[in-house]
Predict the 3D structure of the following.
Amino acid sequence: MKLEDGRTARTLQSSVREWRRSVRSHSAGLSPSDHKLLQQIVGPGGDETGYFYGGFTTSIGIRAALRLIGKRITDFKHILDFGCGSARVLRWFQDVQPRSELYGCDINEDAVDWSKKNIHFAEFTLNEKLPPLPYTAGFFDFIYGISVVTHLDEELQLAWLEELARLTRTDGIVMLTVHGRDTAEKDLNAEDYQEFLSRGFLYRRATTLSTVEGLPDFYQVAYHENEYILRTWGQWFEVIGSIRHGAMWRQELIFLRKRKTQTLTLPVLGDLPLCVLGAPTIGSAPDAELPIHGWAFYPDQRAAELDIWIDSTLVARVRASLPRPDVAEAFPGYPTALASGFELILPLKGFTRGIHIIWFALADKHFPMAASHFIRTEGLVDDFRRAITGAVYRARTATAEAVYRVRCAIRVRTRLRRLFSKLF
Ligand SMILES: C[S@@+](CC[C@H](N)C(=O)[O-])C[C@H]1O[C@@H](n2cnc3c(N)ncnc32)[C@H](O)[C@@H]1O
């Protein structure tokens, strides 16, 4: 199905091309097998599938959010993943090279070590509880921090906000996720919620221990009110707006620009249901039909009607209303979670061989809420052939990785040569 607005269709096609570049350049097959790391990063019950899916979906959300303000990730020269964990999100940005350089930092030594060993296209730094980071002022033009300030007390949070402002060049972009008012309302008892409303901020001990296990004691749970963000973060940043929920589930993405412009309101740029695309899983190779399932629900009573897309083709419109007791169990206090499921089987006839991005958005909107990708093998039905396709896919990405390493080596050699020629 074609979009009526030609400009939107072009933008969409260009976004999909960008997402496919991300998949093609991604060095597949790596994931932190350490169970504790997965728990901290993916959440309770976290596994490799969730790590790949969550990272991919979040990276697509970041790219789409940037497009809302007329930017692409490749517009930025130096990009920092603040609190990168084990590169769950950063690993999907390999395609920005060689135009942009990627950096990650975290306080978790295991996660930083893992990233250094496994992700060779970015530079990782272990940082201390308190700033500074070892970069010069204004070095970064884009910084994002997924689920980081959601864990810091006020003193640490403000110290880090000031540091991120120091590191960002004028007009640079910062994106941070927070637990907003509606999540606070669900989580907090009446007394704590009142305190949250009056102060605009609340920090308390985590109730799900697996997400903070093995981490320093200061790493707990924080909630932010819009007014508070405008008042405090507004000291350093223009607050551009927020994108609520979507793949961030109970969190909101707050969008900031390093600028001395006072912002009086915090516009909601996207108000999305909490959601997951459960199948197809990342990198799967379906036969003639593609089973698709997932869930989506708004925290309030609104119904979630979704458009399912493959690349830039709209393939189905569904209402997320099938019973999902497992989702209701995972999100106690959200009654709409109980009837949030959707599923369908899509014939793949007509889809060419190769990588396809599957994603969904609210009906008649084009902001991707969750995404995965599959490989169309067309006709290669038996297991043996499918295994070969998988191996070729892995070999291709390994080759991309090897080419990258050679490029790096050449770059280092050139730099050394320059240095030697200056010295002698
Ligand atoms: C829930 S995890 C999210 C990791 C990663 N952003 C992701 O989305 O996969 C939060 C991360 O923030 C890191 N973190 C917490 N405080 C930090 C700080 N002051 N500086 C750097 N990283 C921090 C933790 O170590 C942890 O890896």
DSSP finds ten helices and 17 strands in the chain. The chain has a mean pLDDT of 89.
